[in-house]
Design goal:
Helices cover 61% and strands 7% of the residues. The protein is mainly alpha-helical.
């Protein structure tokens, strides 16, 4: 594995980590991205589709599919912006809030600790990695 490019290693770590997180959500019939949107909507009155795309690091068509699937499950509603007819507000429903609350322990900080790929690192190693990754992110 040492022959792999550093970015490939980072990608493999991320993909394996998200697979573990997603596996915990399978019984709840929700995806990581859907639960991420519900989590954000629990904190805000509404989100715009473009904000959801930005949050999920995806394009608008992909975000639209995620939104449409969540709408089919009645976890969210789309409401037209009264001031801008081309824009929609995405709002969480009671069913969506209930769905999010049902996930306790299967997602969020608890799952991230349970599946933390960095738990093999010392505190000092974590700090060093954080500094280095922050530097790389600023370079993008």
């Amino acid at each position: 594995m040492s022959k792999l490019h550093l970015m490939s290693k980072m990608g493999i770590v991320y993909l394996n980590w998200t697979r573990k997180l997603q596996k915990d959500l399978v019984p709840f019939k929700i995806t990581l991205k859907q639960q991420f949107v519900l989590r954000a909507l629990m904190k805000k009155e509404y989100l715009l589709p473009s904000h959801i795309a930005d949050m999920l690091y995806c394009d608008r068509p992909t975000a639209s599919v995620i939104i449409k699937n969540m709408e089919k499950n009645k976890w969210i509603v789309k409401e037209k912006d009264p001031e801008n007819g081309k824009q929609y507000f995405i709002k969480i429903t009671e069913l969506g809030a209930q769905k999010f609350n049902d996930l306790r322990g299967a997602s969020g900080p608890e799952a991230m600790v349970r599946h933390d790929p960095l738990n093999c690192l010392s505190e000092k190693e974590r700090e060093t990695l954080d500094v280095l990754l922050t530097k790389v992110m600023r370079n993008l």
